[in-house]
Protein 1
Amino acid sequence: MRFIADYPFYTFMREYASNKVQMLRAESGITQEQLAGYVGVSRQTIIAMEKGNYTPSVLLALKIAKHFRVPLEKIFTISYER
């Protein structure tokens, strides 16, 4: 039986979550503070998420998707970096 770690692709690629929160927020015309209030976190959390420095919990990601009325996978994706 082979494991994911046995494949070369995974040994050289770093996974990270990328998101479109900033784009959706700008299109909606709301501030970071307003979005933070809608989903129950601090503005600093929204800032960190938009910069890619914070990966939200599943619960927070679901709240954001619900707020924007967009499927979760349209906002959050897995990206790879060498």
Protein 2
Amino acid sequence: MEASSPRYTWAKPVAETRKPVKDFVTVERRKVTTQAIDQIRRLITSHRFVPGQKLPSERELAEQLGVSRPSLREVILALSALGVLESQHGRGTFVSSLSPEVLALPLALILEVNQDALHNLFEVRLMLEVGAAESAARKISDAALDELIEIRARARRALDDIEAFVDCDVAFHRAIHEASGNRLLLALMDSLSALGRESRLITARSRIVRETTLKEHQSIIGVLKRRDPAGAGAAMRQHLAHVARVLESSGLTPEAIALELGS
């Protein structure tokens, strides 16, 4: 039976492997699965395999890695669980889209089973968001400022629509990440946003919180206009500290919050 998950978006194959791949090295018998996973991972990170590309057949891949086909299936299952590979029934195994949403799925599982993960998520987000705001204050263009103003205006119009408001909140923060000019930070924050949207839906239940968010976003825009890195970092820190307090006082237990974040 074909199994699929509604949370995964199948990447359209961009290229099928027709010739043997010469980049594989036969792995040692010990730690076979770990070494094979590492080889496939390196081929993806070096762009030898790209998102949507079909891997060699199971027989070819097992021969090139020097592993048994059962061991290879373990490798494929492990990388599929991480969102790196996708097995399509009757078609073969493909590199996934490698989108932040897909790669964040294992982190969502962590949030479901680890009560401390939510707190850790906020700590990571705080460090990155404050740094992004400080960097954006040094580099932000007038066009990027106009975009932030427009996003906030959309959020005000969506004040009574929680999901639309949260989408605007995500877009507001992403525009700041882009304005920072740091592509690695942007990629990291995109991954976190796949999880953070769920926590935003919890905090945005209150209209007072949504109104406060609009005020805090206006303050952030103001310090960015002044090109004040320290002020931008402080405004972002204050904004996220407020979000954390709201979530902690939401009345939900850590377990319930974690479950909602993973849903």
Protein 3
Amino acid sequence: MVYNPCLPLTLHLLLSFVAYGAAFTSSVQTCRYHQNRRYSTLHSSTSDGANEVVTKRSTSTFETKFATNRCTQEPNRKWLRKFLSRNSTKRTPSYRIAYDYDELVIGNAASENTTAVMLVHPIGVGIGKWYYDRLLKSLANEDVQSSRLVFISADLLGSFTASSPIGSDSGQELKKFPLLNITDWAEQLEHLMSEYERKSCKEGHEIRNWAIVANGGCAPLALEVAQSAVEKSAPFEKDLTNVVISSPPRLPFFLEGTDPKRVQKSYRTLSGIAGKLFWKYALRKDGKFIQTFSERNLVGDPASLGNHWTPNCVSAARHLGGKSKYSTFAFLAGALQDGCKDSLNSLKGTGVQIDFIRGADRKQTRRPKSYFWKRKSSDKSAGSEAEVVKQETVEEYIERNGNRGGTSWIGGRISLAWEDPKGYARELIKLINY
């Protein structure tokens, strides 16, 4: 749908959020990454002298240069990076962003084969790494004998603890995030993966391979990281062998981009007074709107939300003065709706396995849409190829692309790692532990 100026803007924000939430569903010039870790072991146990379960929480600092002088978010991100690096005559300020991440180690402590798994949480009001708390607890109870598995869950740039950019030179806090995009988030993950490889090697456990897991609309982040890995442009060294996407959107989400100018315009609108009013409304009455919205749109059984979902959302959304709203606004504006054709083409025939985890609750889900942007209309003159795209599922497309495209079914509807953590843990280990 197209924006209608006759309706109150705040109503558009609320409707836009509801439409997007049903699916939970570019550029920086240079990045430098520094790790300042503070480890605290939350739980550690060993069994039979071999199997281990270790949980840690750490703090890291990501240093980045936002391309704040860009006027559009081009779908061809690699071309844009080259253009900016060649034509930039103005020094872009650098910012440091501290954030937390959780680490879970399970399996055979003596194994030389360590598979590291990066968990990418959804983006939404108050969502952060806590989204995977239930999953990590279930993974800790899994019996893994033959290998050693590491799971890493970090707050994405602009979410929860990662919402306070500090100027590297000025020391001043950036009050408002620029429009975040796929590259910003992907590079944060890539550099964390690189630093973790070095850390793990120093501790005597060399990483053998990586897997990356994302939910719904954050699938482009996982595919972007996988593309960087196969093209050898990522800072981490080990192969990325598995991409797992839960609650995947429909195939057009992966193949169609959005109008960059509309995304920019939408973000400016959302970052103004209307967005502030929406954020305040969403958090009022201890998150009553969040609870109602989640029950209707994100889970199959409202009881599966439990007692912690809404309080976690409210607490994270209020953290650091509510600055995580800018990552949510970027998501709502369509920053992740950039299309994944480049990534999928790069992964074609590479051996990287892309698999899916779906919820068995088949409650009707509306296709994601926003009142601030619209998809490009299908080109009817494209002929048979356009017809094939309309008929295919994302699994069929991935299989045809040579990346396996298997599907595992568990309980739940959209927020599967929270709704059915035991089923998710079981199927995830099957997919990556081969």
Protein 4
Amino acid sequence: MLTLIPVKSSMPSTVVGQQTLTSSQTFTVPDGAENLCVVAVGSGGNRGTNHVFGFPSVTYFAGAGGGGALCWANALPVNPGDTIEVTIGARGSQTDTTLAVNGTVILRAGAGKNGGNGNSANGGTATRTGGKGGLFSSILPSGSWGGGAGADGSGGMTSGSAPPSAGGAGGYSGKGGFSNGSVGGSSGSGGGGGSNKGSASGGVGLQGEGTSGQGSFTGYSTLSNGSSPGPFFGGAEVHGGAVRFIWGKGRAFPKTRTADITEAA
């Protein structure tokens, strides 16, 4: 939701606000907006399709999906009235989340890749690989941006073993939790990994850096990075991508006045 709030000041009128996008569109920098900052999250990858072969049947588990990356940036080089082309991928689309100004991509939060199908051809190994986690990058000046890569999904195995688990979304200052679920993301990182029994993974919130997500041995990882409880994005097999802009004096990612502001400050 778009929020514009006049700041009471003797200086020329400025505004403080924020806007979250979950689909591709053109973003126009609001009138009076200064110090535009952004966080972008790539979509999570999907799990491949299991393959059942032979009699008695053997299940070749498909590879799990990788987590989407997160990338944030502060003080974007734009002015009120300028436009930013925002591309956001849906879950499993393998389409990176990007911001482009005048045709040049200035920031990228990579999508997690899909896991390979559980095909038994060629021994069933090459096609059951886990999806790679997304990577992040920017052409903006060093020190003005950061983020974390998504975690890889684990590869499929034959029946008799636990199905693979998905990779966690990247965080504001570190990689997402690994998919075996034995550990969550490192301190300040992204969503936790999935369980070791084939679950989906944890996502990451857009409100700024918070508590790191934790892996789960039994199911969906609900503890995900973010200073408030969701919504979450980027978790493999669960979430698509998203972008959140914030603007106003004194605001900066990863965690300086990044939560929604409902009053002028």
